[in-house]
Amino acid sequence: MPWSTKVGGKRHKFDIRTTNYEKGACIINRLQRMRQQMLKEKIDAYVVIRPENGRYISGFSGGEATLYVTAEKAFLLTDFRYIEQAKGQAPEFEIIMTGQDHFAFLEELGLKAQRVGFEGDYVTYVDYEKLKGSFPRAELLSLPNLVSYLRSVKDAAEIELIHQAVRIADDAFAAVLQVIEIGQTEDEIGMNLEFSMRRAGASGGSFEFIVASGVRSSMPHATASLKQIQWGEFLTMDFGARYQGYCSDITRTVFLGNPEDKHREVYETVLAAQRAGIKAVAPGRTGKEVDAVARKVIEEAGYGDYFGHGLGHSVGLAIHEGPNLNMREERILEPGMVITVEPGIYIPDWGGVRIEDIVVVTENGCKVLTQAPKEFIILE
What is this structure's pTM? Predict the structure, then answer.
């Protein structure tokens, strides 16, 4: 069932076959919202170079571009390699062909600006010096969250693309479970996951996969290695698909062979925490509050010292976006935010368990997009 949203006072339906008109309506709406934020910040112009922000505002998915947006104008600067692509993907922008040093052309646009915002968390010192050269009489202001804040609440088209990326990852997990064999390396399992997702239409993985078995599963970010999987150990797989630019993120932990009581206890504790965390996700709550609900389950089971990361993070054009679910996040959740819920227990020299789903915040709670099974899977 396609999602729907209001754009320009009218309701439009979206699915993964979104029409050019509907895409254009989304971009116009995003530009309008960006300009409203610029007005609040009292800036005349904003420079965008972060690829995810540029794609979100313009629709351009190429590798090199700088956006320059004012109250009246919207420019996309790129070099010869991407001109044709930019004209096709970003019709709401005036396309300017430059060399590979885009900042050198900003001053040549002849636009007067007294206060210019930029992505201070992304711009390098070298690029900042170039910006100063392009706007010698303007005040430069670091406003790193101006576009990222807009991206945190997804529109209907974005949610459907993320949902499709989730479906691809779910299917890949089901397929790989059928071919896991003792003696395979973690690398092989990771490659099988990516191959399955690519066959289903993903452009690739959304990050470097974590495939960790045995004692290595106690490392939350242990990327796949040449270690061979063995009987009597956990196997954690953290992976995701990238579909039309949007990411999914899923973690499942299975057991190889006959688990001991402690294996079952740790797994069931993480699962209970994850379910409690999902139940706690709702508009009006902060990421800090949701994190505390899941963390309490693990602490009361006696494993609090072995859960050292946040409960989750937002997902979209980037695999890690804001807001987060952690002990410090004060931002309030809103409908349309897409976020992971991924508690874990990691015991050094023994092993670890993580379970992760993607959810969409709704008006009354949340909708779980991930459908891969979460019961304790034992491979024999």
Answer: 0.91
